[in-house]
Amino acid sequence: MPSENGQAAKRKRVCGARVRTGCLTCKIRRIKCDETHPYCKRCTQTGRKCDGYAKPEEKSFPKTSIVLPKLATDLTCMFGHTKEAHYMEFYFHQVGPKLAGHFDSEFWLRLVLQLGCSQPSIRHATMAIGYLYEKETSRKTSDVISQDQSDFFLLQYNKAINGLVENMTQSTRHVEILVACILFICLECLRRSCDPFFAHCKSGLSIISGLRQNTVRALPSAMTLETPPCASLMKPTLKPLRNVVPIFARLTLMGCLFGQEMFDLYPDQRLPDIPTTFNSMQQARLMLIDIMVVALKFIRRCASKKYSGQFTMDDSDMQRLLCQRVDEWYASFKKSQAKYREQFEQGVESLLMFYLCTTIWISCSTETSETAYDQHLSKFQRLVSLANTFYENSTTSSKASDESLAVFSFEMDVIAPLYFTAFRCRDHVTRHQAIKTLEMFHPRREGLWDTKNALAVAKRIVSLEEANLQHVDKLCAQWPDGTNRIHNALFGLGTENSVDITFVSFPNGLKSRGCVWKEVVSTQTGSLGIPIQTEG
């Protein structure tokens, strides 16, 4: 239609937005591409060459740099005080793994750390343990402790005590109190403080005994802690006791060996039924501890009747039952140990040493004469062999991890069994091998057991018993006469340089009155004892 000025209207082409995803050829031609891959049909169907598609452009964003604050790599950020952080780190990297030994990492490394973050008593006790352990390991190089270091220990010790007292005012904090109690027991052990050690032990046992009375069913004893029958009835806040009560069971055993009456966990003489195989090394260990504590309770009762001949049929039945349970334990352990030996090799050796001591001691508990131990020479020899293997494995693993053999262990391993062998085995070669092996572990301590004290007492016993055997050939061929044998030797922690020993013997025969005397024996020079009191 003509316009007003008589010219035809000019038509304009309407273009859409430029396609960015089509092929290169269609883009040049400015036509819509059907975007078929790898070549579009718009090009190929018209005989054109499709040049394909351009690679998608990478989006770029402006770069910005943010300077982050440097994170603390130690515990200073948690505790603020550099020295406190040092001893906490030292505990968890050095002390805790050694205190945990073969089985107890759950307590010493997890539970203590967990509660230490929230409980001042546990946190400060842990720092104090770290301080004392560092002091113990540096005894070879320097005995000089600065006043500043001593003040630090006293400060942490007092803070831990104050925190414990505060917890004891709250009736629901049983786990926290018992964990702190164990840490204080460890502290007193490191300090060589015997009376406070047992005071804390008895306090902890009293708390556990009270908890048992307040539950629908008693808290599980050491032998059933692995799979407690009353787990569903136990309050969640008390479940950590599964890792706490077994430690008190083992402390009971240690206390018995040092003449203490600590049987709160074992009010009667019930013995566990031994399974055909153990489902863990922990189960095997707990059952052996139960047998040993009940056995020691029986042995102590027999000791009061030993020289009066007042044994009853009940005593004979109990002895027979104990021997049966120990044999059953060993049979089950033999079937189970292959599964766990590689992981718990030293733990296996330690359990076997205590098994041998237990079976020997039970067998001889109702015998009046010390010659009863002579029938167990092969067991004593095996015990020494196990101790040597334990030492070899310890030094091998220590070299591999660039660590030294632990100078302090909270648990008993080799010192008590080797001392028992040097004392009760009268074969000259075997008992001297036991002493030689014990010397290899010096200056190691295990709980209240100290190698220097055990060596001093063992050597003094051997010198007394073998005094009348003059020649080497006689020493190897003969054993001390019954009248020359020591029947008992009682000693405590002693001092830095000596140990007091009370000896009991029957030089005029078992029907005569016994001879009791005390001596002070040097732990440094190995000199003969100095009599300080004589009875009999």
Automatic annotation (TrEMBL):
What PROSITE patterns does this protein's entry cite? ZN2_CY6_FUNGAL_1, ZN2_CY6_FUNGAL_2
Q: Is Transcription tagged as a keyword?
A: yes
**In what residue span(s) does the Zn(2)-C6 fungal-type domain sit?**
22-50
What Gene Ontology molecular-function terms does this entry list? DNA binding; DNA-binding transcription factor activity, RNA polymerase II-specific; zinc ion binding
Where does the signal sequence lie? Answer: none
From the Swiss-Prot or TrEMBL record, give the protein name: Zn(2)-C6 fungal-type domain-containing protein
Which species expresses this protein natively? Patellaria atrata CBS 101060
Q: Does the keyword Transcription regulation apply?
A: yes
The record ties this protein, via InterPro entries, to: Transcr_Regulatory_Proteins (IPR052360), Zn2-C6_fun-type_DNA-bd_sf (IPR036864), Zn2Cys6_DnaBD (IPR001138)
| SUPFAM superfamilies hit by this protein | Zn2/Cys6 DNA-binding domain
The record's keywords, sorted A to Z, are: DNA-binding, Metal-binding, Nucleus, Transcription, Transcription regulation, Zinc
Spell out the SMART domains in the cross-references: GAL4
